[in-house]
Design a protein that fits this description.
203 residues, mainly alpha, 83% helix, 0% strand, elongated
Amino acid sequence: MDEALTLLTELPSPLVYAVLAAGAVVENIVPAIPADTFIVVGGFVAGLGTLSVGAVFGVVWFFNVAGAVAVYALGRRYGRQFFRTGRGRKLIPDGQWDRLEAFYGRWGVAAIFAGRFFPGFRALVPVFAGVAGLGSLRVVPPLAIASAIWYGVLVRLGFLAGDNLEAVTGAVARTQRWLLVGSVVLAAVLAWLWWRARRRGTA
């Protein structure tokens, strides 16, 4: 957190926006990037009067959604070909395509919305929405709304932190740890379902 605060308070305003935008985009590809901490600190810097809090939120929200939509578009354009040929075919056997499409057909909007709050799944859910062929009108709105809620809260917390920035970032970190635990549990359940489906398909 200290490193993020030092970086964002020392950089010129245009570069601060660029750092926030890059973090918001990259976490759609590399979930381990600590973008949330930078975004809270970005809100804090806006509270100091050196940035516009509306601009901080707008930049973070726009680039996060843009990154997620780009990942979704790549999944829709190239994903099915990847998973139907070569090594990718081992990940999603032919018998599981109907299940994947049925899941996204029924739960796609809810899964995309919820997935934006869980580390790791933020990057995976849009990809597989594209692979499953889910239309953009069912993908972009839940992405945009969930991102607006999550990053709006983070920016607002940072903006209102004042002398309590360390406490706020600590609370965000604890929340992220619990969400990560939820992500691990959910990933384990999905891995078990995938393994069971493969065994049935092999049998």
